[in-house]
């Protein structure tokens, strides 16, 4: 779905801090930042995500993303262990801006309990309503 200039894909789960989660295969969950976050940050120049084999906890820090405007903390939508990091972001951090839901993903996590974690995340309609509230401020 679209909310103004922002894409809100229907197949993702979201945090209020503008990260997304997509279950890919088995218990693996791909994580990135939303279109809103990417556009708000403007030009991303550096991404420092958690490393493979790092344990991550839902709503806890998984790294930072740096833009020409600011450095922002990244938060994990799920708990588990980092399985992979998007190595393309080392030399092309701008992928986060150009393609936040496909090429600009951050990390893959093997989730310990995706079903429980989803209960604490926002669905697409809930996230769109959250965005609407922010845009009115």
> In which range does the helix fraction lie?
10-25%
Q: What's the alpha carbon Rg, rounded to whole Å?
A: 14 Å
3D shape: globular
Please state roughly what percent of the residues sit in beta strands, choosing from under 5%, 5-15%, 15-25%, 25-35%, 35-45% or over 45%.
35-45%
Instruction: Determine the N-to-C terminus distance.
Output: 21 Å
Specify the structural class.
alpha+beta
Give unreliable regions as ranges: none
Number of helices: 5
Task: List the secondary-structure elements in sequence, H or E.
Answer: EEEEEHEEEEEHHEHH
Strand order of the largest sheet: 3-4-5-11-10-7
**Average pLDDT, to the nearest integer?**
96
**Would you count the extended β strands for me?**
11
Query: Major sheet: size, sense and barrel closure?
Result: 6 strands, antiparallel
Summarize the structure.
Helices cover 24% and strands 36% of the residues. It has helices spanning 35-41, 88-91, 95-98, 114-118, 124-136; strands spanning 2-3, 6-7, 13-14, 19-25, 28-33, 44-49, 55-56, 61-67, 71-75, 80-85, 107-111.
